[in-house]
Amino acid sequence: MSKSREAKAAKIRQLIETEGDAVNTSTRGFNEGRYEAVQSLDDYEGLKADARAIKEDAIERLPDLLDQLRETIEANGGTMYIAEDAADANRYVREVCEDNDAERVVKSKSMTSEEIEVNDELQSADIDVVETDLGEWVLQVADEAPSHIVAPAIHKSREAIADLFNETFEPEEPLETAEELTMFAREHLGELIEGADVGMTGANFITADTGTMALVTSEGNARKTAVVPDTHVAVAGVEKVIPSVEDLQPFIELIGKSGTGQNITSYISLLTPPVESPTVDFSDPDTPITEGETDREFHLVLIDNGRLAMRDDDQLRETLYCIRCSACSNVCANFQHVGGHAFGGETYSGGIGTGWEAGVEGLDSAAEFNDLCTGCSRCTTACPVNIDIPWINTVVRDRVNHGEVSEVDWLVEGLTPDEEPGGVSLQKRFFGNFETAAKVGSAFAPVSNWVAQSSVSRNLMERTLGIDARRELPAFQRETLKDWFDARDSRVQNPTRTAVLYPDVYTNHVQVERGKAAVRALEALGVDVVVPDVRSSGRAPLSQGMIATAEDHAHDVYAGLAEYIDEGRDIVVIEPSDLAMFDSEYEKFLSEKSFERLSEQSFEVMEYVYGLLENGADADALAQTQSEKVAYHSHCQQRTLGLEGHTEAVLAELGYDVATSDVECCGMAGSFGYKSEYYELSMDVGSDLKRQFQTDETHDRTVVASGTSCLEQLDSLLRRPTQHPVELIAPGR
């Protein structure tokens, strides 16, 4: 294993052990809360569409909106400054503080201020900076970086915070409970806010028409920070500008529900700072509000720092639609187990973090954690503005692959020659072209399997390809599904439907029995089936960031299937990730007409069986049971496509007693679970599923799963036979 892989594996292992439990508990709680909260909305998808439309429009018209906002802010008596980069923003903020002879600045939580590292700038000028958000203050005291964009101290337990406070502040009575810790922080920070000279906030949204800032917080510190000091500086990215106050409505509805599962965030502050508003004087407790003339100042510092370049980048532009709710982090199984200190860069973390880091910090920062996104697509349905986060991450991965990371950084990491700048690593080339390996493996099976499993081969693969020696390898079959099908002399007489069974790589070369079962099941239901000789979908190269290769696959697949679509045949797919390619990613690769033809004609195999049964096919032709007990796990992308219910319905109709897993990710994620740097994380994520399938209710059930990765992981976790649902229902099993 290369030094970089060893270092990455060690870091992940450490974070699993030290922070994993705390992060997992909180993020899963937030995510489950989101599921419950959005159910209260009459039209959740409609709100998301409205929010996205507003952001699309705002980013499209951003230069004009910035001009309008400047006029509005100045008319209100404030000052607006657009900073080119972090250094420019910090200079401006420091000068504002120095002009006001500021000795202390109090801040409310702001990821943008983290991005520009304004605290360091002010402290270098001998200005005391105090974070007033509880989580941010905990981290300031601990001298640590945030692990989550909404809950920065999510990785710290109550006990750890109590130890930190007791050691640092030495209170008369040791602090223990959450209430004691909170009250101590409230009193301590309240005094610091009262004596502050400048207050600094971020802004979740800024309206161009009125200059109104929306601060969405869980604590009351932000509004105190904004109004108690005589000078208020708001720091935000230029992307936070939206056209009007009316446009705030869908975001206010969505941001709390999406981020923390709250129906509405604790504090929604709409501030339109007029400089004539009265100031506060705590030296006179009887009349703290001053009268007459005031010296209040307001400065809005909007930061570019790469954002306008992102606006002009067709692939990264969507990142600017982000409202920083953290839903993509909370729903991500990998993030749930390691948090932002592994799944993050210099500032931003989680699913959307790759796009932000690439845009504002550079590809070298994004490259550090980009591969932790497995492309499962769960974040796309969680995102309140429908950002295609997996695609952004794939684009960044593709750019990293092409050597746009600085050579110095790579050399410092001690990478092996195959990982040097200027091309795709040997590991990614292998997994991205797995179809070739599968063809060779089948051609020489079973000898190829014996050779691959030898200790010499396993050690060599771990050193050169980063394939973890602890992971069991697939066993290639000499007779492929295509070979088997072509050797048959069977055709359905008077078929009710005609279909193509798409032979994905694993079904064709490894899991051949599930392919045979699918053919038998479809034929039993009156479907005339063909198995074509067609290329793999391109999912494998796409997962490695090899976009051009994936696009080549897409065109070849469509060319190979077009004649069958012309004949009116349905396309039936066993592997959900391949169906997701046809139904989603191919939109980026094919013409609109070609994409629509393929997408509309493609079905997951159990979805297709469900449709046949609903339209009159004879269920008695399939394998029946007398309440055979089944433990079922649905593939990530099958859930994203909304298809898991079809499998449950078919199994129930045929008499199976189905217990469906509510664990959303098995942890395998295709090639991810094979890679030595991620093997332990893969197994840690899978431990949730293992526990669920070893309960008294499930331990003796037949285990079925819809995806190749899920089946492989379950085989490793449970050490008992697993199979695809279609193998259960096919006649003759």
UniProtKB/TrEMBL annotation:
Cross-referenced Pfam families: Fer4_8, LUD_dom
InterPro entries listed in its UniProt record: 4Fe4S_Fe-S-bd, 4Fe4S_Fe_S_CS, FTHF_cligase-like_sf, Helical_ferredxn, LUD_dom, LutB/LldF, NagB/RpiA_transferase-like
Domain spans labelled 4Fe-4S ferredoxin-type: 365-392
Claim: Metal-binding is one of the keywords in the record: yes
Gene3D superfamilies assigned: Alpha-helical ferredoxin, NagB/RpiA/CoA transferase-like
Keywords: 4Fe-4S, Electron transport, Iron, Iron-sulfur, Metal-binding, Repeat, Transport
Keyword Iron: yes
An annotated GO BP: lactate metabolic process
Protein name in UniProt: (4Fe-4S)-binding protein
